[in-house]
């Protein structure tokens, strides 16, 4: 029986989804990602793998087809584990092996996997999947479905969803109604009813503006925001740009473009002082921005959201009187000023972890209330079971002073506003708006909390980027010999200087980050550190140049 299934899986692979090139492909931090035309066999195989994973976990597994902020011709695939979290690392390796095995060896590899992982093939399997708006996502979803069907798995095709919406669905399906309803309406209702309740509680006016200009990167977020609007139009007016009606996905727009280029996206009329935000192509990242009267551009990125949100929760927890441990998780890219502001002004402890959402998410689970954001705009807040119990207990504890109960009730509502499975641009937008409204802040007030240290990022191409090895959450190098000592010497010369280098996880390059008291100094430090990397780590091609 099992052999027959595996033979059919191989036959279908050869007939309809053959592996056309033997180029190696790896399940990286963002799953598999490459040109859409090179993916059918990979995605077919991920359909097979999702069924096996579902049998192992005895739960619904998610599969999202998207290449996030990449150009339209790219595509990708990611598996989602039962609680809506990223696929476990061991299975990332299995996914890589499965994607690269020759077609003819597919049955053999699957059969050893089933044996090694002791998979009970009699166990039923269920997979939920969705895709973004790329043209190639349609045939790729068909390839996925074929892989699921050939393994006799059950499935639900959600069609077009944002990545975080699918994470939410998977969690709902596996938590017996406790997290919410696994439907789009269920998602909108959960988030927006919390948003409206919190909105109604704000009695002051302050400088908050309930109007937002939103760049949806011509991606799937646009159509989902139109749905959100139906629920919240009285509380927040959204002017939507780059909604996919013309213009290409992620083309000179979207969160990644705005963050990397430090400029406003095309397709959005910029007016001085107006609060704006950008989603990325699959709506799991958001950044805010505005321009001043003099045309200068101001970015409010993941670091800013982290400080805004951590400060808000710190205050709210204090008002509840509950003993809850809050913490913030950042990466080495977090601007030094944000870290100082959080630790010194807000007195919230900060943990630093290596780049990549899974590291931040994992660390945030160490706290009762764990806030995490990458500077690029991906982040969320996690609440421990202990925190949930305490908050729910306080809400119904009639012995508590009414202000403390009201604060607990507010905290419980804010928890409903948050997608705890993964960073979610829609949920983060509603959270940021809630916090700004509750503080009576305009976007300029938010910006005034602290001043970013000038910084510069650059890249160096080397023969083999794995010669760079790092420790201390990527803040120091251990190889090649002498590099860290040389960086330390350089940094010491600059006022408020800080610099680190790390091999990229998504491109064949080494990344360099530097910050200092002035832009000229940050540029200079980045340049000098880049030169060191070039000299000590086997640079190839042109020598690094001073960028300014
Ligand atoms: C991936 C990661 C992102 C990280 C980026 C770093 C996920 C879902 N995404 O996009 O968190 O910031 O890689 O890229 O984990 P780099 O290694 O090329 O600098
Ligand atoms: Mg994304």
Automatic annotation (TrEMBL):
<feature type="binding site">
    <location>
        <position position="511"/>
    </location>
    <ligand>
        <name>substrate</name>
    </ligand>
</feature>
<feature type="binding site">
    <location>
        <position position="284"/>
    </location>
    <ligand>
        <name>Mg(2+)</name>
    </ligand>
</feature>
<feature type="domain" description="Alpha-D-phosphohexomutase alpha/beta/alpha">
    <location>
        <begin position="21"/>
        <end position="88"/>
    </location>
</feature>
<feature type="domain" description="Alpha-D-phosphohexomutase C-terminal">
    <location>
        <begin position="481"/>
        <end position="529"/>
    </location>
</feature>
<dbReference type="InterPro" id="IPR016055">
    <property type="entry name" value="A-D-PHexomutase_a/b/a-I/II/III"/>
</dbReference>
<dbReference type="Pfam" id="PF00408">
    <property type="entry name" value="PGM_PMM_IV"/>
</dbReference>
<protein>
    <recommendedName>
        <fullName>Phosphoacetylglucosamine mutase</fullName>
        <ecNumber>5.4.2.3</ecNumber>
    </recommendedName>
</protein>
<keyword id="KW-0007">Acetylation</keyword>
<dbReference type="InterPro" id="IPR005843">
    <property type="entry name" value="A-D-PHexomutase_C"/>
</dbReference>
<dbReference type="Pfam" id="PF21404">
    <property type="entry name" value="AMG1_III"/>
</dbReference>
<comment type="pathway">
    <text>Nucleotide-sugar biosynthesis; UDP-N-acetyl-alpha-D-glucosamine biosynthesis; N-acetyl-alpha-D-glucosamine 1-phosphate from alpha-D-glucosamine 6-phosphate (route I): step 2/2.</text>
</comment>
<keyword id="KW-0597">Phosphoprotein</keyword>
<dbReference type="GO" id="GO:0005975">
    <property type="term" value="P:carbohydrate metabolic process"/>
</dbReference>
<feature type="binding site">
    <location>
        <position position="282"/>
    </location>
    <ligand>
        <name>Mg(2+)</name>
    </ligand>
</feature>
<feature type="active site" description="Phosphoserine intermediate">
    <location>
        <position position="68"/>
    </location>
</feature>
<dbReference type="GO" id="GO:0004610">
    <property type="term" value="F:phosphoacetylglucosamine mutase activity"/>
</dbReference>
<feature type="binding site">
    <location>
        <begin position="374"/>
        <end position="376"/>
    </location>
    <ligand>
        <name>substrate</name>
    </ligand>
</feature>
<feature type="binding site">
    <location>
        <position position="280"/>
    </location>
    <ligand>
        <name>Mg(2+)</name>
    </ligand>
</feature>
<comment type="function">
    <text>Catalyzes the conversion of GlcNAc-6-P into GlcNAc-1-P during the synthesis of uridine diphosphate/UDP-GlcNAc, a sugar nucleotide critical to multiple glycosylation pathways including protein N- and O-glycosylation.</text>
</comment>
<dbReference type="GO" id="GO:0006048">
    <property type="term" value="P:UDP-N-acetylglucosamine biosynthetic process"/>
</dbReference>
<dbReference type="GO" id="GO:0000287">
    <property type="term" value="F:magnesium ion binding"/>
</dbReference>
<keyword id="KW-0460">Magnesium</keyword>
<comment type="similarity">
    <text>Belongs to the phosphohexose mutase family.</text>
</comment>
<dbReference type="InterPro" id="IPR005844">
    <property type="entry name" value="A-D-PHexomutase_a/b/a-I"/>
</dbReference>
<feature type="binding site">
    <location>
        <begin position="502"/>
        <end position="506"/>
    </location>
    <ligand>
        <name>substrate</name>
    </ligand>
</feature>
<dbReference type="InterPro" id="IPR016066">
    <property type="entry name" value="A-D-PHexomutase_CS"/>
</dbReference>
<dbReference type="Pfam" id="PF02878">
    <property type="entry name" value="PGM_PMM_I"/>
</dbReference>
<dbReference type="Pfam" id="PF21405">
    <property type="entry name" value="AMG1_II"/>
</dbReference>
<feature type="binding site" description="via phosphate group">
    <location>
        <position position="68"/>
    </location>
    <ligand>
        <name>Mg(2+)</name>
    </ligand>
</feature>
<feature type="domain" description="Phosphoacetylglucosamine mutase AMG1">
    <location>
        <begin position="301"/>
        <end position="441"/>
    </location>
</feature>
<dbReference type="InterPro" id="IPR049022">
    <property type="entry name" value="AMG1_III"/>
</dbReference>
<keyword id="KW-0119">Carbohydrate metabolism</keyword>
<dbReference type="InterPro" id="IPR049023">
    <property type="entry name" value="AMG1_II"/>
</dbReference>
<dbReference type="InterPro" id="IPR016657">
    <property type="entry name" value="PAGM"/>
</dbReference>
<keyword id="KW-0479">Metal-binding</keyword>
<keyword id="KW-0413">Isomerase</keyword>
<feature type="domain" description="Phosphoacetylglucosamine mutase AMG1">
    <location>
        <begin position="183"/>
        <end position="287"/>
    </location>
</feature>
<dbReference type="InterPro" id="IPR036900">
    <property type="entry name" value="A-D-PHexomutase_C_sf"/>
</dbReference>
């Amino acid at each position: 029986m099992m052999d027959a299934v595996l033979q059919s899986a191989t036959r279908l692979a050869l007939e309809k989804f053959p592996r056309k090139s033997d180029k190696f492909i790896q399940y990286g931090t963002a799953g598999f990602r490459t040109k859409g035309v090179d993916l059918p066999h990979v995605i077919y195989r991920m359909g097979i793998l999702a069924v096996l994973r579902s049998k192992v976990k005895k739960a619904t597994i998610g599969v999202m087809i998207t290449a996030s902020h990449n150009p339209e011709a790219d595509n990708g695939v990611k598996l989602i584990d039962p609680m809506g979290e990223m696929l476990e690392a061991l299975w990332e390796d299995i996914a890589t092996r499965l994607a690269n095995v020759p077609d003819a060896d597919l049955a053999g590899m699957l059969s050893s996997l089933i044996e090694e992982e002791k998979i009970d093939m009699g166990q039923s399997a269920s997979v939920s999947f969705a895709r973004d708006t790329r043209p190639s996502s349609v045939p790729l979803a068909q390839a996925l479905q074929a892989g699921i069907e050939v393994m006799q798995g059950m499935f639900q095709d959600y069609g077009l969803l944002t990545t975080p919406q699918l994470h939410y669905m998977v969690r709902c399906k596996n938590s017996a109604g406790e997290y919410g309803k696994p439907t789009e309406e269920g998602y909108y209702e959960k988030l927006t009813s919390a948003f409206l309740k919190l909105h109604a509680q704000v009695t002051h006016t302050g400088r908050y503006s309930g109007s937002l200009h939103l760049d949806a990167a011509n991606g799937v977020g646009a159509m989902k925001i139109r749905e959100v609007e139906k629920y919240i139009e009285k509380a927040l007016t959204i002017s939507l740009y780059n909604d996919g009606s013309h213009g290409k996905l992620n083309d000179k727009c979207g969160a990644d473009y705005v963050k990397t280029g430090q400029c406003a996206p095309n397709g959005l009329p910029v007016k001085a002082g107006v609060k704006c935000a950008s989603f990325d192509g699959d709506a799991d990242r958001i950044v805010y921005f505005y321009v001043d009267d003099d045309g200068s551009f101001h970015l409010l990125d993941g670091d800013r959201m982290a400080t805004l949100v951590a400060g808000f929760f710190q205050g709210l927890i204090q008002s509840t009187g509950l003993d809850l441990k809050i913490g913030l998780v950042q990466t080495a890219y977090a601007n030094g000023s944000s870290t100082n502001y959080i630790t010194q002004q807000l007195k919230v402890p900060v943990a630093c972890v290596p780049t990549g959402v899974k590291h931040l998410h994992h660390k945030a689970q160490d706290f009762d209330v764990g806030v995490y954001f990458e500077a690029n705009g991906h982040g969320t807040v996690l609440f421990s079971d202990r925190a949930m119990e305490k908050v729910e207990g306080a809400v119904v504890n009639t012995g508590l002073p009414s202000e403390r109960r009201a604060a607990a009730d507010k905290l419980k509502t804010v928890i409903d506003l948050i997608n705890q499975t993964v960073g979610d641009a829609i949920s983060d937008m509603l959270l940021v708006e809630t916090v700004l409204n509750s503080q009576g802040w305009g976007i300029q007030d938010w910006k005034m909390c602290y001043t970013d240290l000038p910084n510069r990022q650059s890249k160096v191409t080397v023969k083999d980027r794995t010669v760079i090895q790092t420790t201390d959450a990527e803040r120091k190098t251990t190889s090649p010999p002498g590099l860290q000592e040389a960086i330390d010497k350089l940094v010491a010369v600059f006022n408020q200087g800080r610099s680190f280098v790390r091999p990229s996880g998504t491109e064949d390059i080494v990344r360099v980050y530097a910050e200092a008291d002035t832009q000229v100094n940050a540029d200079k430090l980045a340049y000098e550190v880049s030169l060191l990397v070039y000299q000590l780590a086997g640079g190839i091609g042109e020598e690094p140049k001073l960028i300014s």
